[in-house]
Amino acid sequence: MRATGLALFFLVVVIYSLVRSKAKVRTALWVVAAIGATMLLCFLAGAIVPERSTLFGVVAVDLSFLTGALAALVHSRRSAKTAREQPDGV
Q: What's the pTM?
């Protein structure tokens, strides 16, 4: 249940960040890069300590959701649309 809630949180934050960002493709690439880097670090940690590889596999999913959401928020904040750039009525 916790992973489902975390996945929903991740999706909401990423969609919010993509809507808010001017550079939608770059924001999405930052999310993918953050998830890939987290997975790689957990894979390497599991390779170094093989008896804890299951633990690192479980932690990798949770950490990748959190780092992906954080990367989306940070990047969308740096490239946010200002009020002047939005058309009237939005």
A: 0.77
